[in-house]
């Protein structure tokens, strides 16, 4: 039976060849020797086994002797048996022989690097460092750009918040103006009723009616401005989405304003007719 075991050991070594006896002491000839030494140990083991078997043999021999004796009285028979046993024993012997053979092989790999090779390595290292620095600079620039974008988004959000607050304020103002307009219309109707009931102080009542009409017209103009102002602001900021949303929200308000304008025109026509009637009455009374 053979068994082989191989062990490999590798070691690096460096050897600077600085010969003081060389006359040519040039930078390009400054050699540096380094290498790798590999030691391989092979162990071969041979085992021989001898086996001897034990054999036991047993031999049995039986001998029978018969003796017959005859007398006058009768016949007497006597039998004698003899047994012989032979035993043979064989002994087993086992012999084991082990032979070990060791072989050692040493392999040395030597590499000589000149100054030019070291310069190339230095250049490659410098290039790698430059590439690494460029990558770091690009990462920094990317982070700065992201921060600038975030700041711009924050400023944009602040502007949007201001615009939304302004739109809410304008909406509340529109509601207040609508309420005032309704109140003025009610006052106008009351004054008309007073004109019909009382003929005294006709001129004062007419003046009050004119003032109310002027106030109503001013309120209508203000409402129109409040409706148009958010649209102008959004157009200035170029926020088309908010503009469309605002237009969708203000459709009902625009319809309401149109109805109010029609009612006001009708009321103005009625007022003019009433004024004409009052003037005619005054002229008739003076005559």
UniProtKB/TrEMBL annotation:
Stretches that traverse the bilayer: 133-155, 176-197, 203-224, 231-248, 254-284
Chain intervals with Acidic residues compositional bias: 14-31
Keyword annotations: Membrane, Transmembrane, Transmembrane helix
Annotated spans, Disordered: 1-33, 52-119
Keyword check for Repeat: no
Comp. bias intervals (Low complexity): 1-11, 52-115
Coiled coil (residue ranges): none
Entry protein name: Uncharacterized protein
Species in which this protein is naturally found: Dreissena polymorpha (Zebra mussel)
């Amino acid at each position: 039976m053979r068994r082989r075991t191989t062990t490999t050991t590798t070691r690096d070594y460096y050897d600077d060849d600085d010969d003081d006896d060389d006359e040519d002491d040039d930078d390009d000839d400054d050699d540096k020797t380094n290498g790798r030494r590999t030691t391989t140990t092979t162990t071969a083991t041979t085992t021989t086994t001898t086996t001897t078997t034990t054999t036991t043999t047993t031999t049995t021999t039986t001998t029978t002797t018969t003796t017959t004796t005859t007398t006058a009285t009768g016949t007497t028979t006597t039998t004698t048996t003899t047994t012989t046993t032979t035993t043979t024993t064989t002994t087993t012997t086992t012999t084991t022989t082990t032979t070990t053979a060791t072989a050692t092989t040493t392999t040395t790999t030597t590499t000589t690097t000149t100054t030019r090779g070291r310069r190339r390595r230095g250049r490659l290292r410098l290039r790698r460092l430059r590439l690494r620095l460029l990558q770091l600079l690009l990462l920094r620039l990317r982070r700065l750009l992201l921060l600038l974008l975030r700041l711009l988004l924050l400023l944009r959000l602040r502007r949007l918040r201001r615009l939304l607050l302004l739109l809410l304020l304008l909406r509340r103002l529109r509601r207040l103006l609508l309420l005032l307009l309704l109140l003025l219309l009610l006052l106008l109707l009351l004054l008309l009723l007073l004109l019909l009931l009382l003929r005294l102080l006709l001129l004062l009542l007419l003046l009050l009616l004119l003032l109310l009409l002027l106030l109503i017209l001013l309120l209508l103009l203000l409402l129109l401005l409040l409706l148009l102002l958010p649209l102008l602001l959004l157009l200035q900021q170029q926020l088309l989405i908010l503009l469309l949303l605002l237009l969708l929200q203000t459709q009902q308000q625009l319809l309401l304003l149109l109805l109010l304008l029609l009612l006001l025109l009708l009321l103005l026509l009625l007022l003019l007719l009433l004024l004409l009637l009052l003037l005619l009455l005054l002229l008739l009374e003076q005559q």
